[in-house]
Amino acid sequence: MSDRPHMPDEMDLRAAEYVLGLLDGPDEAQATEQLRTDATFAKAVEHWRQRFSELDFTAAEGAGDPALLARILATLDGEAPETQAAGAQTTRLHVGPDTLKSSAPPPRAAPRARAESPISRLWQSLGFWRSTGFAGAAATLLLALGIAFGPFAAPPQPKLVAVLMGPQGEPAAVVNAYGDGTADLIPLRPISVPDGRVLEVWTLWDPARGPVSIGLAGEARRIKLDLKNLPRTGPDQLFEITLEPKGGSPIGRPTGPILMKGTTSVAL
Amino acid sequence: MSAMSGMDHAFDFDAALVACARGERSGLQALYAREAGRMLGVARRIVRRQALAEEAVHDSFVLIWRQAASFDPGRGSGRTWIYAVLRHRALNILRGETRTDLTDDFEPLGLEAPEESPEAAMLRLSESGRLRACLEGLEASRRAAILLAYVNGLTHGELAGRFGVPLGTMKSWIRRTLLSLRECLA
């Protein structure tokens, strides 16, 4: 039993946030643990799950693909001895799938490497950066150009600059972040934007929070970025541009392909 | 309506899970036949890409098989449990893997599921149901935030970004909305 004096509302709301999938990182891990050990919390979670589950049942029905079933059964065949071992240690302790967290991920289902945090994975995605080394020198040059591009050549001086690189490692745009908290983006080459699509600019200020939309443009042009709801831009902050449906991503996070990305450095 | 719900109850999820726990493949196959299509739909709303949704469903069935013995019918419904497994897996895939995936592939357009508006799922809820009535009673942006979280898997931070409010504001919006939902659903 939990001996922490929870306000019932507090616990119930946390259960609801957990069920909504809003908890992340340590909060999520803590809730998962509490679910296992605290019957009151587990009850609250189950109750919220039932309240919302009706929404799951609205997803389009359709026959399950027999090929996928075959894959599932093949995975189970592949791990048959292991299943028994796992079965032996699986007691009826746990109520939720949340115990899954602690169990190893299913073996067959790991076509991609898994790593701890999205941000480190981003950095590890060397496919993107593989070709960028070459462009380093050019980038430096363009970075200087980017600074000089400002309409009123002298002030204001950006405090931080990010050169966004395209898929071939070519410098594609520059983001300047100024001392007054404003920022702008200057494209360095044209970008073809299909009909019905727009360019959406994102920044990842806090990996826990995820990318935040800071600008939209129908074509590659200089735009002011909307950073007013974000803390001051810092070094090594990721900026990227994705292609999104007209009006911007309907769900508030990138859905389309990343056209370019880069992180901020301090401007000397 | 009653015919519909009658049909819903015709399938015994708990019994299928008990069969899985006993190591009977027929239990898993019955669950798959009954629910896989819809589970794929739920996963696709979250991870958006067909291949990732299939991965989530694959993983979920493997986990359901492995963990069926830990399912306790006394503590909740079998169907809810299955969807909790799926949602958990889909969110993990979304948060741990998708971003890099997008980065790596530069995937051409068109491979993603067309995005459903947050309201669309709600409009498919039974018109006579409490959940729908209570959601419809919420202020539009609060309702959208709840739906985007549950249906599409957005985090507090993503919601804050989308609605252009500070993170703390979004958190208290959600909490207040949950309180009124709870009251309405009681």
Number of domains of chain B: 2
CATH architecture of the largest domain in chain B: Orthogonal Bundle
Number of strands of chain A: 8
Give the count of helical stretches of chain B: 10
Sheet of most strands of chain B: none
Ends of chain B: how far apart? 22 Å
General shape of chain A: extended
- Characterize the quaternary organization of these chains: heterodimer
Low-confidence sequence ranges of chain B: 1-8, 98-112
Describe this structure in a few short sentences.
The complex is a heterodimer of chains A (268) and B (186). By secondary structure, chain A is an alpha+beta fold.
Can you offer a commentary on this structure?
The complex is a heterodimer of chains A (268) and B (186). Chain A is of the alpha+beta class and 268 residues long. Chain A contains 8 helices and 8 strands; from the N terminus they run ααααααααββββββββ. In chain A, strands 5-4-7-8-1-2-3-6 form an 8-stranded antiparallel sheet. In chain A, helix 2 packs across helix 3. With 186 residues, chain B is an all-alpha fold. Chain B folds into 2 domains: 10-105, RNA polymerase sigma factor, region 2, helix turn helix motif (Rna Polymerase Sigma Factor, Chain: A, Orthogonal Bundle), CATH 1.10.1740.10; 118-185, Winged helix-like DNA-binding domain superfamily/Winged helix DNA-binding domain (Arc Repressor Mutant, subunit A). Helices cover 75% and strands 0% of the residues of chain B. Chain B starts with a helix and ends with a helix. At the A-B interface, helix 1, helix 3, helix 4, helix 5 and helix 6 of A face helix 3, helix 4, helix 5, helix 6 and helix 8 of B.
